[in-house]
């Protein structure tokens, strides 16, 4: 069974530019998470989807971040415009109901 | 609000010795508890979970964890450490009501040969 797939693995952009990350969750997992992980820190939840509905986006900086999960499968996280402080690893995860989260490899974003 | 605390930034253990990585939590109601491991430049890998039942749960790579409700703890353990166990370990809790998974800040485990 394929795991959670994220792309790209690495991205380097200049500040004020836009960037997008893509995630394909495990088939059948209704719950999808986007986390941000700074170096040496634990993952911080940005947004959680149940199917196509964003049920928890309280930690998403809505002035520059946006996310969508069309048809309740793939998801895209976008930052526009990026700032230096956005440099981090962006992790996507999916889970079955009440189960553990399975993580993708992450996208390492560097804003210069 | 739910929270997870990992009081140790780093734990050093000699190879072959037992290891413990500590975790305490705060959550409304009964928790779902998890441990994950992260190797450099990799995503988080699931190790084990506690949902209900036996307080001692066994997971991947010989790891186990003990749930203690009175102390609100879920410490990760292994009887005999391997150098290859060196990595970053995260404890996480899921609030049954909120369904959100929250992670601790992580503990770096160094196994010394």
Describe the structure.
The complex is a heterodimer of chains A (112) and B (113). Chain A is mainly beta. In chain A, 0% of the residues lie in helices and 49% in strands. Chain A contains no helices and eleven strands. In chain A, a hairpin with a 6-residue loop joins strand 7 and strand 8 (75-79). The mean pLDDT of chain A is 94. With 113 residues, chain B is mostly beta strands. Chain B contains no helices and twelve strands. Chain B has strands at residues 3-5, 10-14, 19-21, 24-26, 31-38, 44-50, 56-58, 64-68, 73-78, 87-95, 101-103, 107-112. Chain B starts with a strand and ends with a strand.
Give the amount of beta strand of chain B, in percent.
over 45%
**Can you summarize the main beta sheet of chain A?**
7 strands, mixed
pLDDT averaged residue by residue of chain B: 93
Distance between the termini of chain A: 37 Å
> In percent, how helical is the residue content of chain A?
under 10%
Number of strands of chain B: 12
Percent of residues of chain A in beta strands?
over 45%
Instruction: Let me know the number of strands of chain A.
Output: 11
**Helix tally of chain B?**
0
Largest beta-sheet details of chain B: 6 strands, mixed
Q: SS-based structural class of chain B?
A: mainly beta
Low-confidence stretches of chain B: none
Inertia-based shape of chain B: globular
Radius of gyration of chain B: 13 Å
């Amino acid at each position: 069974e394929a795991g959670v797939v994220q792309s790209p693995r690495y991205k380097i952009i200049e500040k004020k530019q836009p960037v997008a990350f893509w995630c394909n969750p495990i088939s059948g997992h209704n719950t999808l998470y986007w986390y941000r992980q700074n170096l040496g820190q634990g993952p911080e939840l940005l947004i959680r989807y149940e199917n196509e509905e964003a049920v928890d986006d309280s930690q998403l900086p809505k002035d520059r971040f946006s996310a969508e999960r069309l048809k309740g499968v793939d998801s895209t996280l976008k930052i526009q415009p990026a700032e230096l402080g956005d440099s981090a690893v962006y992790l996507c995860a999916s889970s079955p109901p009440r189960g553990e989260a399975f993580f993708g490899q992450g996208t390492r974003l560097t804003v210069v | 609000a739910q929270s997870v605390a990992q009081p140790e930034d780093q734990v050093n253990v000699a190879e072959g010795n037992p290891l413990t990585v500590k975790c305490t939590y705060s959550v409304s109601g009964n928790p779902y508890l998890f441990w994950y491991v992260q190797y450099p430049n990799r995503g988080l890998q699931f190790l084990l979970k506690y949902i209900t039942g036996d307080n001692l749960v066994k997971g991947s790579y010989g790891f186990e964890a003990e749930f203690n409700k009175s102390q609100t703890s879920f410490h990760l353990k292994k009887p005999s450490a391997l150098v290859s166990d060196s990595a970053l370990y995260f404890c996480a809790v899921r609030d049954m009501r909120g369904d959100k998974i929250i992670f601790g800040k992580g503990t770096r485990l160094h196994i010394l040969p």
